[in-house]
Amino acid sequence: MSSDNRPIDLAMQENRPEKQKMRSLWLEKVKDVAKNYPDSSIPWYLTLPGSEGHDIKLHIDEGLINVTEVNSIAE
Question: Which of 37, 1, 3, 29 is nearest to 58 (CA)?
Answer without folding.
Answer: 29
